[in-house]
Structures
1.
Amino acid sequence: MTNSMNNLELVKKVVTEAVPVLKIEEVDKQQLAFEIDKRDVHHVLTVLKTSGWKQLSYMSAVDWIDENKFELVYLVFNWEVPVYVQVRAKIDRVNPEMDSILPIFPGVKYYEREAHEFFGIAFPGNPDYHKQLILEEWDDIPPLRKDFDPEAYSDRKFPKREYPADFSVVDPKNKSIEKRKERKARANALRTGGKEQ
Amino acid sequence: MLSTKFTPATKLSKAEIDRKWWEIGDFFRRNSLWLLMYCTGCCAIELPPAMTSAYDMERLGMGPMATPRQADILLVSGYLSLKTLRRLIYTYEQMSEPRYVVALGSCPINGGIYHDSHAVINQLDQYIPVDVYVAGCMPNTEAVMNGFVDLMDQIKHKTANGWKKYHANFEWYKENQRNSLGEVDVHDEFHE
């Protein structure tokens, strides 16, 4: 069990015997990624949990806007065998929906709420996936979708600072000492309310 | 013969007496400032050297305070997300007056490196009045200490009027807060 290659083989055996795997990727010596159909996710996670991968470390989504798909990534960890297992499954980008894995890993509750907030994925089976968690009073499309423009949102919602005077020295031949004096005078005026020190 | 030791008191008007008391109060206040450190972002890392023996803010008479009700300065260190801004406005309105705001770093000034983020505001003084900005990403500890001395100067010269501005322009500040936040009140499952 100490040899990392044997560990990877063990994981491959466990997963490929359970469900049809579309693609296997060795991320590194301690991490394996399996791409499977979304209908097999619950089965493979149950199998992994009973084989020792009992900790759900993370769950999130990736937006593949060119394929018009969301990819869900479940990351599970085993405290006996040091291998992370990623379980990936693609779902439709239009009306995205995935059955919750709450009965298998109760800790996924908040990850699913996060994924719903940032990608708009629905998780039937999770009783409060639709509640707000991180963003409050959000009024636009979910912000981690690739077609969301954060700069336009920021420009629309938050006032930008306008600078009345430009103190930057553009031309080095120009006397910067004047600018510096001007800047210091302004700073002093702000500090003392216009009175001389 | 009248003693020169006890000159008769000149009659002062109520406003003049008030002003004198405020000057006395300001003298003691600026030499004993208590900070409420609202460590929102990465500039908070400048505070340990400012507080401990490296720069020792206690020699300026400053110290940390645990609750907003007894603090004089609200110290905003770093970027402010919308979620934090709601709590910051709560905190600011809880503080007793006179209250001062010191903002560290470039993020409260113009957004800094988060100028195009959907979650971070760009200009803190649109929502609450700010007395001292300390620019830099992040500012040196010297700059932070200088900012505190600037604030003491401002109190001395009676220009640290942020809290008065908040009263005078209350509707304007509230409108800005509503425009960016939607609603200032916090509604989440932990508050219901």
2.
Amino acid sequence: MTMTAERVGVRLPRRPAIAEPRRRGRWHALLREPGTALGLILVVSLLLAGLVAPWSPLADPTEINLRERLRSPSPEHLLGTDHMGRDTFSRLVHGARATLLAAAATLVLSMTIAVTVGLLSGYYGGWPDTALMWVVDLLLAFPSLILALAVAGALGPGLLNVLLAVGAVWWVGHARIIRGITLGEREMAYVTAARASGASDRRIILRHIAPNILGPIVVLASLDIGWIILGIAGLSFLGLGAQPPTPEWGAMLSDARPHLQTAPHLILLPGAAIFLAVLGFNLLGDGLRDLLDPRIRRLAR
Amino acid sequence: MGAYVVRRLATLPLLLLGISAVSFALLSVAPGDPAEIVLHQRNPGQMPSPAAVTAMRAELGLDAPLPAQYVRWMSRALAGDMGRSYVTEQPVAAQLARRTVPTVVLTVAALGLALVLAVPMGILSARRRGGAGDAIVRLAALVGSAAPSYALAFGLIILFAVKLSWLPAVGYGSAAQMVLPAIALSLAPMAQLTRLIRASVLDVLGQDYIRTARAKGLSEQMVVMKHALRNALLPAIGATGVILAHLLGGAVIIETIFTWPGLGQLIVGAALTRDYPVVQGFVTYLAVIVLLANLATDIALRVADPRLRYERVGV
Amino acid sequence: MEGEQEMLRRMAITLVAALALPVAVACGERDDSPPAAATPAPVTAAAAASTAAPPTPAAVTTSAPVTAAATTPPTAAATASPSPSPTARTAEQPAAPAADAARPTLKAGVIWLDSPLDPVQGGWVASQSGMSENLFRLSPTNFSPLPWLAMEATDVDPLTWRIKLRSGVKFHNGAVMDAEAVKASLERTIRLSEASAEALGLDSIAVNDEQTITITTMEPRPTLPGLLAGPAVAITDAAAADAAGEGNFLQAGALTGPYIPTEYIQKERLSSVANDDYWGGVPPLAGIEHLAIPDINSRELALQAGDIDVAVNISPEGAQTIDAHPDLASRTAGIGTAAVIWWVNFERPALSDPLVRQAVSLAIDRESIAGLIAPAGSGSFAELLLPDALASCPGVSAPGYEPAQARDLLAQAGYVDSDDDGFVDKDGEPLEIVIGGYPERFQLPIMAEAAQAMLADVGIKAKVLITEWSVVKEPAWDLFGWYNNVVEAGDPIQNIGKFVGVSADASGSGANNYGHFHSAELEGIISSAAEVADTQQRQEIACRALDVVASETALLPVAHAYLIYGVNERVTDFDPHPANLYFFDHRIGLRS
């Protein structure tokens, strides 16, 4: 575990870094695995699509043309148009942006909570630890999608509410893992030494322990993002997530339901987009996990 | 031991109180006036008069201050009365009880299906590591864990219900009606379990005692069946809890698509129509079950494993 | 080690949860479930003259005695099946009438099975499913009230109506529906349903003889027969319903329709058996099984898969797929009975200027939008607020789609695009409007999205707000989408009045005016109808009122929503009624 940070390329003070060439070799190994390479390609193209969408020459994804409804693919509309005459291809590409932004925001929110809770709980212990882990135990056993559904039901539909809802329930599993790692690190000789030399708690947490949880966080995040994308799309599909005219894959799938038989591609395309995004992140996550300490694999389970 | 149980039991109502208070507060600040929602529901397409709204607010007890409303709700909930649905005017507790059975049936069927297929696939994949069978299983598991179940559900309905007319498209009651939703729901956990079992079989096959067994001259078949399998399945069974939670989440969508009258369909409908008593009752109901399950588990583990009696469990 | 403990723990949680759930269920059921056995009262299979006349004969024309063309109620003839007597239920709760194998059960998929069965709690489910009946029902062609459980209605004077009742009608529990029973039923409705009490405004009900009652109202109610057709005013056996107690309405057998409810699980299913003692004849079906399939797409698929024989309320798109299927067809009565409109907010500055209001109206291509939400060629756009069948007003027309004219009007109002951002502004303030709507009606979000794009074309920035419907009461929007039944009581004036907050004849149940539109002229026109009983005259008044609504852009009507059914070709004698009130009558059958 103590090697984790080096392996993802974070330089730690006071501890000798592993030689450069070896690290590079590991990254090469990562890419030689065809699955991981595919995952990386999928994720990178998705990120690119999401990034450049607003500046691309694509049609406006919200531009309605009621005289051009449900058109088949043509040079003008590469993947045809939807029930409002909007360009399907443009909506898919912009959908990547909405989906990735929502997933990223959810991840940042839940990771922030998880790291804070995990670090403090693991480092200080005592009754706050007991209390926090109680809450974690409780929430962990809740199906997160259902809890998010209840929250979204209370706050009202909307992408922001959904990501708040998902983020608010997603952190618990990670908090437990980060706490576990913190507990382990706290007992390490170098932490004891730092403490003996008079370093403050704050300094020990930030300088010594925090860098060691970076690796696990990266792995957890990449393994999780697929689930989060599926969850957000699922809530949007149920009508609780993204609202019109926002192009979002789950909502697009839901909008296309009346045309299931007459224009099945309108369901298949966003379905495929969700599938490829989740697949990409899962493959990449697997690769990253294999690259890192196997102990994370056990903890992440 | 006794003191531990007492301590745990003492914290139970506190946690429950916390959860219910938070859910109550959350729902109270939500937009929309419940009195008008009820009236609108009773008379679709008609606008309730102000007098009727005032009367309904009094009837629902919404004219009292918020803390008083909470105390009233809580004291009734303790007596098993979780209020009535705004939409159906049926007792919430009865609805939750009714809806539990179909959801349990569906998730258990899906879990069973997932296990039945995942165990042989996982073992096969591990034993033929690197072979064609392994590659196919791994690919299937990857696809299964990334495919959105709702898209799959539509494909199943179109193919097996509409085109081939082999199975019903919606509904609950007969075994035939269970096939499509169970398949759609089992895909993701099947993929998860397959990967898990493959990994743990590989793990176990590399252990010393397996090598010993092989050295003793046991057939590969015997090695796998007698020694590896039992140990390899433990993690899979252990992960079932988490998978069950995922299944319950997935059931929300599958139940909606297949008109399966379970808890998922209930909560989606309630969330969309702002049927607050149902949402509130549902969250509390789930919390009670989870809390009791947690408590019972911890106690059972302590009884079973003396090493745990003097330390905290589940760290 | 850590991992293993965690696994064991999870395993145990799973087991305990699996055990806890059924226990919770058992407890829940013990505490809350209604008394078991919801079997209906036994009924004699009166294999009577099977060619009984339909229950909807001649039309009611008010101001003259309203007479039903002598519908001969079937006299109980030779009893075909040896069922027990039709009187009180026995303690043993006998099973449904000896089901004759020849009679099939129809399976129907509907959107809602939400509201309680007792009519005083809304009444929609019981009326739609052919279980409850009223004194009058709305005509399928012009929505005027037709005699049903009543035979005729006479307005003795503006405050007094004499109503003659059909004889030979029995409640499902076997009790006879006579004048005393009808009086008790109406009194129960008024006691338990405030909205109905307000709408009817009854002063007293007197029993003249066994088949005649006299109703006096507190103020003139020229449309009383129409008001008596409301689903909440269905005739019930009040004594039995009250005796059964709350939540046990089904057990009381207190309704009169051709189908007797046997089991009702709200939001799931509603089962019924045929009422073989029905006054209109023996239904050809053994019963109807209603399934709640809230999702419109699932309903269409269930019909195609053969799970159901009738899908109530399908989409225009779904109708095309269903018509292409060899065994299925879509059916509609061809009259839209619910108007989809936008309220126009007069209290917010944006649309208080009549020029801007007109510009907005001209900028929206409502005909195209109507094409999205109503079947093609429905012509609903031209009908403005009310369907032609209720009030035909050739002289009144809605503004067309004139984007160029809209831009001119905006310029006249002082709005120009001075900062070249594509949107008009005045004194540095951009013109920005909010288009609201609620998600439960699929039309409203589509409308809002489409209008947003059209307004942008003429330089008006619009924001879409899909939210809780009651937000319509908050000053947070400029246009708000609304879906509303416009054939209530079969009276055009009431259905205009309720949109502009003016009651038609002082009844105006739940009238409201979310746009805060006020016009003395309109109020004058509508109140002039208070004592007018003649249908023709009321229609003329309605047209004058609609003219004001159109010229002031008081609200923006978009289309009429049609009720479309998907039906299997095996279904016989299905006659769709345009209103959302009567899905099934006693004649519908099913070929094997």
